[in-house]
Design goal:
By secondary structure, this protein is an alpha/beta fold. The protein contains 8 helices and 14 strands. α4 packs across α5. Bound molecules: flavin-adenine dinucleotide. The site of flavin-adenine dinucleotide has 30 residues, from β1, α1, α4, α5 and α8.
């Protein structure tokens, strides 16, 4: 297994917080795999330190399970201020520091605004508080009933001390002397759209408010990160950037399989693990000569 991080486990170690998952359980699982003969090569970024093509040449089968290791970002005035961070990368940095892989503690503001409504947003609230933020505001453009983190996640954020602002969307990060001092938000309302599961947030014209802030953590979605440029190796990507796989997790290039969030988009531990197990079974059948390659 080739992995860019200093320790195996992916988001189970570097994303999900230890209040939500038993990290020692994950580490025991990795230990069991080592015992079975799995060789872990840490700190190797495929696409940079080794090319996917070399793995395709060198192995009988390859599984891509590189997840969604890039944050979607808001593009609004002030986005490039150094106090505006991508929440997932910041949480990964926190874990690198927490587990002793990096000496430097990630920066935290006194007044933090977290943008988003998913698990990463809720976790960004927790970590901000743990690192000493005095005030944390969570802003989300819909209402909690429609948030990926759900009513439960929002309650958890409130219990961690966040002030929640629903139906609000940042439109500008305000700076003074090159430093962030506040977030200007526009009020939103929800409009049902036929055929869509969730109502669409639309701006309420002329209605704005400002939150004072010295740090922003954007948690507005994660992007699939296949370890190659789109189109390379004949591996087809879907429009949303996920790797196109069939029911046996076969990509459009023999003998490359793909599983987990990189093949179905950001999800949860359960579906990602199930997808990996399905891929493992398919690879086993493929290596035994019981499964051919897809045609389309
Ligand atoms: C902050 C946060 C909190 C979350 N909380 C929860 C939760 O409470 N409950 C829940 O069920 N789910 C949660 N999730 C989602 C869950 O962690 C993911 O759905 C799941 O881990 C996806 O598994 P995966 O194996 O597909 O990818 P990942 O766990 O993302 O693993 C991908 C692996 O690929 C490696 N990699 C990526 N690119 C390369 C490359 N080019 N070369 C080498 N290695 C590479 C990474 O280092 C990583 O080890 C959370 C996610 C985040 C970010």
């Amino acid at each position: 297994m080739f992995d860019q991080m200093p320790e195996p486990g992916g988001f189970l170690i570097f994303g999900v917080l230890e209040i939500h998952i038993d990290k020692e359980g994950v580490r025991r699982g990795v230990g069991e795999l080592r015992g079975l003969g799995v060789e872990f090569r840490q700190g190797v970024r495929v696409g940079r330190d080794v090319l996917l093509g070399e793995l395709i040449e060198g192995y009988d089968a390859v599984l891509i399970a590189t997840g969604t290791w890039r944050s979607r970002r808001l593009r609004i005035p002030g986005s490039d201020l150094p106090q505006v961070h991508a929440a997932m990368e910041w949480i990964v940095d926190y874990h690198l520091w927490r587990y002793g892989y990096r000496g430097e503690r990630p920066p935290v503001g006194r007044r933090v605004v977290v943008v988003g409504g998913g698990l990463t947003a809720v976790d960004a609230v927790h970590v901000s508080r743990w690192l000493g933020a005095e005030e944390v505001h969570l802003v989300y453009r819909r209402t909690r009933e429609y948030a990926p983190a759900g009513v439960k996640g929002f309650r958890e954020a409130e219990e961690a001390g966040a002030v929640v602002h629903e139906l609000a969307q940042p439109v500008e990060y305000i700076a003074e002397g090159g430093r962030l001092v506040g977030v200007r938000l526009q009020r939103m309302r929800l409009v049902p759209v036929p055929g869509e599961k969730r109502p669409r947030p639309v701006p309420v014209e002329g209605e704005y408010f400002t939150l004072p802030a010295d740090m922003v953590l954007e948690a507005v979605g994660l992007i699939p990160t296949p370890p190659f440029n789109g189109g390379d190796y004949g591996i087809r990507l879907r429009r949303d950037g996920t790797i196109d796989v069939d029911e046996y997790k076969r990509t459009t290039r023999e003998p490359v399989f793909a599983a987990g969030d990189v093949s179905h988009g950001p999800s949860l531990i359960g579906p990602a693990a199930k997808s990996g197990l399905d891929a493992a079974r398919a690879i086993d059948r493929y290596l035994r000569g019981e499964l051919g390659w897809r045609t389309g």
